[in-house]
Amino acid sequence: MEQFHPDIKDVLLSEDDIKKIVSCIGDQISTDYEGKNPLVIAVLRGAFIFTADLMRAIKTDCEVDFMAVSSYGDGVKSSGVVRIIKDLDTKIEGRDVIIAEDILDSGLTLSYLIKALGARHPKSIEIAAFLVKDIEGKKPAVTPRYVGAHVPDAFVVGYGLDYAEHYRNLPYIGVLKPEVYS
Ligand code: PRP
User: Which residue of 14, 35, 66, 144 shows the fewest CB atoms closer than 10 Å?
Assistant: First the structure.
C-alpha cells in the first residue's frame, strides 16, 4: 500500500487524478485560445506547481509570468485585503490573460487581482482554478472559467498548497489532520 505523509488524514486527489484534471483544463484552454497566445499568470506561491503542469498541457502558443500577493490577516482566513509583493514583468494591455490559481476559497484574492489587472486594460481576463472550495451557504466572489475540482471545506495541502509553508511538495492533494493545525 502507498504510504502518505503522516500528517495527512485523507487523500482527495491522487497524482493520477491531478494529471487527468490538468490535462482536461489544458485541452479546454488549447481550444478556446487557439491562435491567441494568452499570458498565463501564476499567483505565487501556491500556484507554481499547477501552472508548471498547466503550461505543458496547453498545446497552443502561450506565455507565463508570475505575481506574488499576500493577504493581510492571520494567514489562515483570507481577509480580502491583498498586497502585491511581486508584480508582473509583462505589459498586459491588449493581452488575453489567464490567472492560474491553486485554490479558490472566498475568492477575495482573485477578486482583488482581477480589479487590479483589469485597470491595465487587458483584452480579456479569465481564471483557471485548480481547486474550488465548497463552503456551505457561501458563494466565491468570482467565477472561474476553468475549474479543476471541487473540494470540501477542509484544510487541504499538497500540489503547491501549504500549511505554514509545509506540504507544498506533496504530489497529491490531501486533507491535513486537525491536530496538526489546532
Ligand atoms: C491561498 C491561495 C489563494 C488564496 C485563496 O494563498 O493560493 O491565493 O489563498 O483564498 P481566497 O479565495 O479566500 O482569497 P495564500 O495566501 O495561502 O498564499 P500562498 O499562495 O503563498 O500559499
Answer: 35
- Spacing, Cα 102 to ligand 1 middle (Å): 8
pTM tops 0.85, yes or no = yes
One of 3.40.50.2020, 3.40.50.720, 3.40.250.10, 2.60.40.10 is the CATH number of 15-155, namely 3.40.50.2020
Q: What are the E-state strand segments in the chain?
A: 8-13, 39-44, 63-71, 82-86, 96-104, 124-134, 146-152, 156-157, 173-176
Atom of ligand 1 nearest to the CA of 165: 22
CA 74 to ligand 1 centroid distance, Å: 12
Q: Report pLDDT digits (tens) over 4-40.
A: 899 999 999 999 999 999 999 999 999 999 999 999 9
Give the ligand 1 atom nearest the CA of 71. Answer: 16
Which one has a higher pLDDT value, 136 or 148?
Answer: 148
Residue 32 known to be catalytic:
no
